[in-house]
Amino acid sequence: AAHLYGGAPARASEINTETEFALNLWGVDLPPPVEELLAATPDRNVCLVDFQQQSQLNKAIPMGNIVGVIDHHALQSNTIVTEKPIFVDIRPWGCMSSIIAHSFAVQERYLPKNIAGMLLSAILSDTLNLKSPTTTAWDERVAAMLVQYLGVDDINELAATQFRAKSRALSLMTPYSLVNGDMKQFKFTGADDSYTVAYSVIETTDAEASLARVLDILPEMRAVKADDPSVHAMLLAVVDIVNLTSTLVICGRVEASLAVAAYGGSIEADGHLLRLPGLVSRKKDFIPPLTKAVKDGWQPPRLSTDGTLNKSTSMTDIPHSEVIVTPEGKLVRADD
């Protein structure tokens, strides 16, 4: 998007291992943090790419600096608010990068091959190799165009290599990184109350390996709520991108109540897992049922004698120590 519209690329958060793989594969430099660019030029214009919710906005970005949005997600109750008209390109496609690649073609702009490669990798990631229910005919057309332009011999092999690289790296990630690496916050409004839900996703070719670490992951999920009082529930989905199914990790009673209300089924005997067969997309499969559950009147269990919301059945085992970076570059708790 930056190359297309003459801007400077920036990242709003740390990148995940799949993005790192794609950057290395296509020979693209890691963009600087948006904080650095805004520190140098505080009044710099900003275009949001792949999101438009205030809960997902980097705190360094003033709302008044936003001049554009390019996205493919639903407009929910917590969408950004601007004082003046801005450029908006939101389409119901499976990937934002399909929109960018299409815009290059429509505007007859030269598309460098390293950027084309990044766009293709993003499409394969977002649409799970064009198998996700969010995939549209436009995503398929754009992917085919990029494959031909780049001379990719086998798109399935490219996707498999990319997914394997991501899954191998997951085994080396700390519980903190697994929980926080791909987390978004969503605000749901019901008849009487609004609730903020943090929702993490781990996409992998080896779901059982991630699920085997549940007891290490649970404290970090609870820590999200302890560290941010505005978060009422914390959910994490382990997505099996081979078999196109997911397992939801449950860290407390509020989460169990909300998950069953939204998705049905029953929590497994250990109280920590809910199977979600056939559901793989946060945008299309995971979030809409939560929206409906809250609109239909779901309310969290109220355990306190004064009727206030108890945000977790158990806040024990929550690590309160600070997050530090090890010499190997891993994010861990100081007392780990």
UniProtKB/TrEMBL annotation:
| Limits of the DHHA2 domain | 160-294
Q: Which InterPro entries match?
A: DHH_sf (IPR038763), DHHA2 (IPR004097), DHHA2_dom_sf (IPR038222)
Q: A cellular component term (GO) from this record?
A: cytoplasm
Identify a single GO molecular function assigned to this protein: pyrophosphatase activity
Per its UniProt record, what Pfam families does this chain match?
DHHA2
| Database matches in SUPFAM superfamilies | DHH phosphoesterases
Specify the protein name. Answer: DHHA2 domain-containing protein
Q: Which organism is it from?
A: Ostreococcus mediterraneus
Q: What is the lineage of its organism?
A: Eukaryota, Viridiplantae, Chlorophyta, Mamiellophyceae, Mamiellales
